[in-house]
Design goal:
Rossmann fold, alpha/beta, P-loop_NTPase, disordered N terminus
Length: 172
């Protein structure tokens, strides 16, 4: 019989780590740090979208359309990594209940462990960090605006314990 971890999954399988937090909360930065610290595979939605649809995403609705195209392919790929014992950090938003259900289907279908990290930072901090990102990454300036922050924040649903995730909350 395979050894099991504290969450009841087979210890030989990898762990899926995913994050939620408003725009500018630092999800991408933390994702990179988590991947580097433990030699995990990092899969970044922004990198995949930029590589595949560089000049095609001009607004939030188009982003949603292309993001949805990635998910079936990446789900199977991430499951294969997890089942082979590789831990994965996904830099994809887990900012709504439906988005988190997609993540649940990844780790549940293959019996892997998981961790949802919620970056619970103030709007002021997120907006300040967005301003810094616009300056350091001018190519993002048309999306990383205060207006887009408020638009996207309107959809944000913080995770609750009722959702049943192994949850770590990081407060600012």
């Amino acid at each position: 019989m395979a050894e099991q971890n504290a969450l009841g999954q087979e210890a030989s399988k990898g762990t899926l780590i995913f994050l939620c937090g408003k725009m500018g909360a630092g999800k991408s930065t933390l994702s990179r740090q988590l991947a580097e610290a433990e030699n995990r595979v990092l899969i970044s939605e922004d990198e995949w979208l930029a590589a595949l649809y560089a000049d095609e995403i001009n607004d939030f609705d188009t982003y949603l359309k292309y993001s949805a195209r990635l998910k079936p392919l990446l789900k199977k790929h991430v499951q294969e990594l997890l089942c082979s014992g590789v831990s994965v950090v996904m830099d994809f938003p887990a900012n709504t209940v439906n988005q988190r259900l997609w993540f649940r289907s990844i780790f549940t279908d293959c019996g892997a462990a998981h961790k949802l990290m919620h970056l619970n930072h103030s709007d002021a901090l997120c907006l300040s960090q967005l301003d810094k990102r616009r300056q350091s990454h001018p190519e993002r300036a048309m999306f990383d605006t205060e207006a887009m922050f408020w638009h996207v924040s309107g959809y944000f649903q913080p995770p609750t314990l009722d959702e049943g995730f192994y949850l770590e909350v990081i407060e600012s």
